[in-house]
């Protein structure tokens, strides 16, 4: 009986360990391939390319701007979605829809909404505002794609706020607005910061919606993912350099989530 139990446990253990090892190896091997194709000297030289500098600077500026916008508009929206009301499910589905949409579809939607002949683009053009193929279009594409990621995290945090704090605020006759901003929000700031870091990393890696709505103009709309795509066709060294930079920044973002946001953010 004991022999059968050990054999069974060995089979079950192998059924867990082997697929896990294969999955880790698949990811690690794919990422390691970025590092072995260029020597450190070649990689350093590739980073000196003007294309790399422009794409890196533009991506950092636009992703930080989009993250700030997401924080300002996404936090109140997440608090609203954490409050029960009729139609909340439909609103939440609408807000999170960009997560499952192909990014190029999101870019097309932005173009049809804010392009020169779009729903709002016609009115904007009358006052001399043209958004497509500008840096502002890059930020809009990043917000459209990455905001739902933060809102989903923040909504879950608000929904699981400490009920004892809410009850204490209610006992003191505090308004719901005051309770939200002065009682509920402060303890959640570290976890919300983790959600913002994830949204920033997603904005940094956005490609499909950006190239569809903002195009590919070096120094204006050519972000790091677009630079990788374009450079891979003519200059593999520059493409690898930008890809490695993206990988390092994304890895740093995930590490920051673990150590800045804390355990609660990781479990939400």
Task: Summarize the topology.
Layout: H1 2-36, H2 40-47, H3 50-81, H4 88-100, H5 103-114, H6 121-126, H7 135-159, H8 163-171, H9 176-204, H10 208-213, H11 224-231, H12 236-261, H13 263-267
Helix pairs in contact: 2-12, 3-7, 3-9, 3-11, 3-12, 4-7, 5-7, 7-9, 8-9, 9-12, 11-12
The name CATH uses for the topology of the largest domain is MetI-like fold
Going by CATH, the homologous superfamily of the largest domain would be MetI-like
Helix content: over 70%
Average of the residue pLDDT scores: 82
Keywords:
single chain; 268 residues; mainly alpha; MetI-like fold; 13 helices; disordered C terminus
Provide an overview of this structure.
The chain is mainly α. 80% of the residues lie in helices and 0% in strands. It is built from 13 helices and no strands. The longest helix has 35 residues. The protein is globular and about 80 Å long. The C terminus is likely disordered.
In short:
The chain is an all-alpha fold and 268 residues long.
